[in-house]
Each structure stands twice: as C-alpha cells, then as structure tokens.
UniProtKB/TrEMBL annotation:
It comes from the Bacteria. CDD domains: TMP_TenI. One of its GO terms (biological process) is thiamine biosynthetic process. Residues 35-173 form the Thiamine phosphate synthase/TenI domain. This is Thiamine phosphate synthase. Residues 175-196 are annotated as: Disordered. Pfam families: TMP-TENI. SUPFAM superfamilies: Thiamin phosphate synthase.
Length: 196
C-alpha cells in the first residue's frame, strides 16, 4: 500500500478521466508536468476491464512521475495499487492509509470532507461542464468563498482550462476536457496546461 503523500507533494494539477477522453488519454498524460495527477474514473467499464485499464495507465503514470488516484472505494484503490482514492466523503474510509480526494459542492460537504480527513477537496462545478450540461455552477466568487472555508487544499473542477485557472490564483485545478486530448478535434490541443 503506497504511503500517504506529504502536503507538499500533493499535485495541484489533475486530469480527470472519463469515457469521452479515453482514446486520447495517453497523449494527454505525456503532456502533464511531472508531479501532476490522474483521477481515474472510467465508470463505463466493467470491473475487470476497469482494473486492467488502470494498471495499463499506471505504468505510464509511474514512468512520468504522475500520481494516480482511483475513483471508488479505498479497498478497490488498494487492490489496483493506486496512490489514492477519489469520491464523496461518505464513500471514503476515515484514516485510509492513502491520499484521499473528496468531491465537494457546498459548505455542508466541506464539513463532511473535514470529518473524513480529506487530503484535498475538488470543489465543483466552477463553470459549465459537458459532464453535467445545464447544471448550476458556483462561478469564481462562490468557488473562492468555499475555498476559503476549506479545511485542506482546494482544487477547482468543472469547466476548467488553464485560462480559467488563472482567474483563481494560488489554487490548483482539475479538468476532463480542459486537459484531455480529443482525437476528433482539430486546431490547438486543449491538453497543454500552458495553452490559454
């Protein structure tokens, strides 16, 4: 079981995977800077295929110096050899000996993250997303208010790009589309975190 990471080594840039980004995931991971992280969701795959895909990507992540987190239960994260686990506070075991990333959408959920002893909170959605079209968003000001109340380092998630991350200075960010490589797109790739 991997040891818990020190706060200084917890990534501030996270790529979040899903079905629509899977085909371009390897190129996107190669572009991430050393020390960034991947939240491996891939909920669309059956359990055995999901674990196999995780292990396949884990080889690349280890080689590139990336942290790899499993979305699900701590037990499943340990089974696949993940560096950590990602999910809602109620789903994560308090005191799990691995990095814990908790999803947060409100002050109440921040309290739950505190009780779970989260290492990092992903506060969302900051901006409109393709994952949840039409869902209400926090916007930068409400996101910053939640971030100020966070018991641990906050990460912005939801419609994030490098340009939008600059509107939340001093905070880390995570993205699906904003960091992913989509093979069908043309023009400038959104995968480079330095792109604006």
């Amino acid at each position: 079981m991997p040891p818990r990471q020190s706060l200084r080594s917890i990534p501030q840039l996270w790529l979040v995977s899903d079905l629509r980004t899977d085909a371009g995931l390897e190129p996107a991971l190669r572009r991430l800077p050393r020390g960034a992280g991947l939240v491996f969701r891939h909920y669309h795959l059956p359990p055995a295929e999901r674990a196999a895909r995780f292990r396949q990507l884990a080889r690349l992540c280890r080689h590139r110096g990336l942290v790899m987190v499993w979305a699900g239960t701590p037990a499943a994260a340990r089974r696949v050899g993940a560096d950590g686990v990602y999910g809602a506070a109620g789903q994560l075991t308090r005191g799990a000996a691995m990095l814990r990333l908790v999803t947060v959408h409100s002050l109440r959920e921040l309290g739950a993250a505190r009780r779970t002893r989260a290492d990092l909170v992903l506060i969302s959605p900051v901006f409109p997303t393709r994952t949840h079209p039409g869902a209400p968003t926090l916007g930068p000001l409400r996101w910053l208010t939640l971030a100020r109340h966070s018991p641990v380092r906050p990460i912005a998630l939801g419609g994030m790009t490098a340009a939008r991350a600059r509107r939340l200075p001093g905070h880390g960010w995570a993205a699906i589309d904003g960091l992913a490589d989509h093979p069908r797109r043309t023009g400038k790739s959104p995968g480079n975190p330095k792109d604006s």
